[in-house]
Design brief:
The protein has three helices and seven strands. The chain is of the alpha/beta class. Strand 6 (74-85), helix 2 (87-98) and strand 7 form a beta-alpha-beta unit.
Length: 130
Amino acid sequence: MANLRSRTSGVAPQFVSQGAGGQVWDGQRLGGRTKMLRIEKDGGGCVTRLRLSGRIQSDQIASIRSEIDDDCTKKILDLRDVTLVDLGGVRFLIGCEDEGIKLVQCPAYVREWMLRERAEEAQPGSSDVG
């Protein structure tokens, strides 16, 4: 289980463990509710596999990126336990695929959203203004 980093008033709870196969919890307090992302990292040989659980939101992408940025040639994101993704998260996942990172067990709604985002980007004259 992950170690609990001390929690003070007004500071988001964060759970972190050290070493290979560790877990990282990236939590932020928002309006009395905590939005959480759990990252479990498995590495064997030259394969890095991250299992993500919870919510992938724009402000948590740096945490995911820091865990997956290593020298391994094969990288896998397991999205089986992802419950919510925002637009920034979808764009991040598209970028991961473009970089050769394999997405496995991707929820159907996330895959569909990624396909729509790719289609929008491919259209001439498409813009990000909404």
